UniProtKB/TrEMBL annotation:
Principal EC category: hydrolase
Annotated Histone deacetylase domain residues: 20-306
The protein's Enzyme Commission number: 3.5.1.-
Protein name, entry field: Histone deacetylase-like amidohydrolase
Protein family (similarity comment): Belongs to the histone deacetylase family.
GO biological process: epigenetic regulation of gene expression
Organism domain of life: Bacteria
UniProtKB keywords: Hydrolase
Gene (UniProt): hdaH_2
Database matches in InterPro entries: HDACs, His_deacetylse_dom, His_deacetylse_dom_sf, Ureohydrolase_dom_sf
Amino acid sequence: MTTLHLTHMAALAHLAPPWHPERPDRIQVIERCLEQERFAALVREQAPVASEAALARAHDVAYVEATLAGLRDGALPGVDHDTHVSPGTLEAALRSAGAAVQAVDEVMTGQVRNAFSAMRPPGHHAGRARTAGFCFFNNVAVAARHAQAVHGVGRVAILDWDAHHGDGTQEIFWNDPDVLFCSLHQWPFYPDTGAVSERGPHDTVVNVPLPAGADGGPFREGLAAVVLPRILDFRPDLILISAGFDAHWRDPLADLRLTEADFRWATEQVMAVADATCTGRIVSLLEGGYDLVGLARSVEAHVAALIEPATGRTWEAGEAAPAALADAGS
Ligand SMILES: [Zn+2]
């Protein structure tokens, strides 16, 4: 079984002012990194555009229509001051969401074991009817809804390890008992949501706040002791990762201190859970990550793990918290 890698040149044409951290270089350094010989086994495809119907499964129809019109016109009313629109933004946003859809299609039909999309703009701050924090369409939400609607997937688990809370994703699935949303993030921090007490009416929201300055220790502990047991108990048919890498110690936007080894370890742990619950089906979508060196190293570690079988033991759903795995990292 193989790992799919999706990207597209259109990701480079979504432009912001030169000082802006969410910039085309992010994709360029990732692609340069993934050209290495060790990644020769990747199945490489171009990200297609998402259909309006796919977007409207995660967002209000009126929001999709207004956002598409605004992006075509080159201006979106009401967008926050951090989120910029350029002539290339429309195609980039459509292909960023389209990559998520394509990845779900290939993973759910067994063409590939798992998938990683290196596209931008990111998505996890976009709400049902809200553009925010560099995000227009919520790519991971589009992926989850596509899996449910087109592939008949019963339960989807979303793991968001971006340094910022995935407020848009949490909002979209707040009332959905069939989608488990788990987030580890710096807190208190932008966008201010993500407290432990935010659990949702069906107890399907799991927030693990990390204090500024936290290194891989609390991150690994939160993943192994809180998040992974919840995903195991949920028995998802598919696991999606909102893979932001701005928790890396070099990142200028956040104050966490993870290393690339932490991301490799986290990826392997999630793969072990995926093996135990959903025959290894994982779709990973790039979110943040703004230090180009930290981003490239982290993606390298993440994708290398996705290609190779997880080295940890396989867990059975329902067994005790796999806290012992916390010290099994590289
Ligand atoms: Zn972030």
